[in-house]
Amino acid sequence: MIMEYLDLLRLQFNNRVRLREKRPNILQLEAPLYHEDGDMMDIFIEIPKNGGKIKVCDFGMTLMRLSYSFDIDTPNKERILNRILSENQVEETDGNLWIETEPDKLYSSVMQLAQVVGKVSNMQLYRREIAYSLFYEKLQEFIEENLRNYTPLPKVFPIPERDDLEVDWQLKLPMKPVYVFGVKDYAKSRLVAISCLEFQKAHKQFTSIVIHEDFENLPKKDRSRITSAVDKQFISLEDFKENGLSYLERAA
Amino acid sequence: MEGKNAMVTYTSELLSSLISCKKKVVKPPHKEMKIERGSFRNDLSLKSEDGKWNFSVFMRKNQKFAENFIIGLRYHPQEGESFTLLRCNGPHGNHIDLERTNSSHYVFHIHMANIDRLNDGVFSERMGTITDKYASYEEALSYFIREVGIMDADQFFPEYITQPSLFSEEGE
Predict the structure, then answer these.
(1) Could you read off the pLDDT of A4-13 as tens digits, one per residue?
(2) Maximum CA pair distance of chain B?
(3) CB-based contact (8 Å) between B52 and chain A?
(4) Could you give the ipTM of this predicted complex?
(5) CA gap A213, A168 in Å, rounded
(6) Of residues A37, A59, A94, nearest to B123 (C-beta)
(7) Which end of chain A, C or N, has fewer beta carbons within 10 A?
């Protein structure tokens, strides 16, 4: 019975598919479904030994491949992965992405899994955005929860005609405002350095604080540039969480 | 040939140097690979002997299928995105380039960074070529360690440095 459906699968793939016995009861699909790097997608069909449903799965190959350039190691990345899986009705067990299916739905299940494999693999293309949003999410969360006394104001433009010079948050202190910037990478670090120098040139009265995701990760020249341009830096979000409040109390 | 990644211009010669230069271990690998999400994993960090270049090495082996492994070298430039220079794969499946050339399927193969791909900004190491340099994860790691010039490798991979190749023609 199952062999009939495997023949049907071949037909549906226009005979551009082969099934190769990987292990007893495990067939590897050889079909024109490729990763961006040219490797064929690792899709397997697990034939049940005693009846039951067929499993279309990847035996952890997708997450293994992804892990060397983009690891699912933060709650935000985990959330995005889970969303991809749940929206496409694919399960994950110990890294194995799988779908249980009926023999007559084999083709659509293979295509469904292939789509998810592609989406999960492409998470690495969005690594900067994913990491960026996580850092900002965490920083925003901390500022909103812990710095309420300073009336944090997001997205401030101290020089109205310069909409390219943005302050992430402005904190209200008695003497002068504090401009807070989150810095994830060298590009943002350079923008913050330029912005602060422009604000100084425009005779704005402010104190600038930078919270780095990882100060040590910045190129040496960028560490020098930003150190010279801003008033206070926290080398990590943890550093800011630990020492930010006491710094602001002293500055107030 | 030249390619650009952020503000750095790469040449084929530079790519070759990045792969083959002597490298010091900055962060050693774990003694044992750890199992995570269906695969055995280990990593280490490297720096070129002159301290100019930073690298990482990833080692992955599928928990279910031992022949499905990846060992690779990634370069982390001071500016711009990191990318993979060299990747030794087990016979996990087919590759589109091998299909086009009607090469045999399911073979051990090596991906190398390529200037044109680097210029595109993604998957610099797309090109896959068949290799006869190894026939298992252990042999691949032994080959990889020699190929990428890991210094004092015997301290971190004693079993892979001392192990002679069983089928070596010249007693390598």
Answers:
(1) 778 888 888 8
(2) 45
(3) no
(4) 0.84
(5) 14
(6) A37
(7) N
